[in-house]
Amino acid sequence: MLRTxxxxxxxxxxxxxxxxxxYSTTQHSKMTAVTPTATFTLNNGHTIPAVGLGTWQSKPGExxxxxxxxxxxxxxxxxxxxxxxxxxxxxxxxxxAFTSGKIKRENLFYTSKxxxxxxxxxxxxxxxxxxxxxxxxxxxDLYLIHWPVSFQPGSDLFPKDKDGKVITDPTDIxxxxxxxxxxVDAGKVRSIGVSNADVATLKxxxxxxxxxxxxxxxxxxxxxxxxxxxxxAKKENVLLTAYSPLGSGKDHSPLKEQVIVDIAxxxxxxxxxxxxxxxxxxxxxxxxxxxKAERIASNRKIEKLSEEEIAxxxxxxxxVRIVDPKEFWxxxxxxxxxxxx
Length: 341
Ligand SMILES: NC(=O)c1ccc[n+]([C@@H]2O[C@H](COP(=O)([O-])OP(=O)(O)OC[C@H]3O[C@@H](n4cnc5c(N)ncnc54)[C@H](OP(=O)(O)O)[C@@H]3O)[C@@H](O)[C@H]2O)c1
Fold this sequence. Notes:
Helix 3 (about 85-100) links the parallel strand 4 (about 75-80) and strand 5. This protein has one domain (about 1-340): NADP-dependent oxidoreductase domain (TIM Barrel). The longest helix has 18 residues, at about 1-20. It has an eight-stranded parallel sheet with strand order 3-4-5-6-7-8-9-10. The chain is about 35% helix and about 15% strand. By secondary structure, the protein is an alpha/beta fold. Mean pLDDT is about 90; it is low at about 1-30. The protein has helices at about 1-20, 65-70, 85-100, 120-135, 175-185, 200-205, 225-235, 260-265, 270-280, 295-300, 305-315, 325-330; strands spanning about 40, 45-50, 55, 75-80, 110-115, 140-145, 190-195, 215-220, 240-245, 285. The chain binds NADP nicotinamide-adenine-dinucleotide phosphate. NADP nicotinamide-adenine-dinucleotide phosphate (NAP) binds near residues 79, 217, 243 and 246.
């Protein structure tokens, strides 16, 4: 009964938002103005701060300080994952922040991700229990299926065969999804979503979902804007979160692109702030990673760009996928769809 009522409410909300949606690539009807406190409304009615702190490759001994610096700078959104191996330290930092009154739990949006070795339905509750315990939290705001591929379960998070190829497992993403839905029912997570899903995978989950995914977290920046995926997600009222929005520390990065550097000069901003402003203005959540307090603070200071500036950034022709499992797992998950121009 409760589930039926919840589903009706979700459907009603989804219907309401669908009817008020804008399809423009630079506007999003559920988005507030492009400012540091910008938020998006998810398809289940919860809100998510548009800018969050990324924590991948934030080392032990650094990540806790980074989280506290972010909260001091006004962030209310942290993006983490079990596989980043740093959630215990994040949990300690959050405990400090709650105890000292820097932020209340209900004002923080925390995302974590189910790792590939926990896709089998019987493994999902083990994964969320560990994650909540590491973070010292009672619930997550958002739990994502990190990759649309299942690995052989076990203590090795990257199981490989004798030829060095990752060992996959046949679990279907829909079976994993059904377990995530149960976590919502149990109050362990408020919202659920996917990550690294292409259009076909996102459609498969949506078509088989009792609770629709709220977010698909994917690589997005001017060198990989993925307009077809963005258009499809907007049509389905699923938000995209842009990961590696600053080029993930690579030398060949959109941070150095002349168009971005020129717009930054004009605005008296740095290139990072322009990339992040563009990301939010096109209707995507953005999660820049830094462990440097100064950059953490500046990355949040996004502002509205002109339509002409947005068009100039959209006109960048370079295409690069930075995070490609073809290179590190030998799995061609995106089937060359860097070509999604
Ligand atoms: N779902 C997934 O599969 C997935 C995959 C990748 C990433 N993510 C998430 O997305 C987050 C962000 O992506 P990312 O970590 O790959 O890369 P990113 O945020 O694009 O870039 C981070 C790199 O840029 C540097 N940096 C930060 N701010 C800067 C600025 N204003 N100017 C110049 N350089 C700056 C950082 O160095 P310092 O730390 O030294 O400042 C770091 O080297 C991750 O941390 C993670 O939470 C998710």
